Amino acid sequence: MGSVGLLYVGAVLVINGLMLLGVVPGKAAAAMNLFVGAMQVVFPTIILTQSDGDPGVILGASGLFLFGFTYLYVAWNLLTGAPGEGLGWFSLFVAACAVVYGTLHFTLIDDPLFGVIWFSWAVLWSMFFVLLGLGRESIQRRTGWFTVFLGIFTGAIPSFLLLTQNYPSGDGSALIGAALAVGLFVLAWLLGAPKRTSISRDKNTVDAST
Question: What stretches pass through the bilayer (predicted)?
Answer without folding.
Answer: 6-24, 31-50, 56-74, 86-107, 113-132, 144-163, 175-193
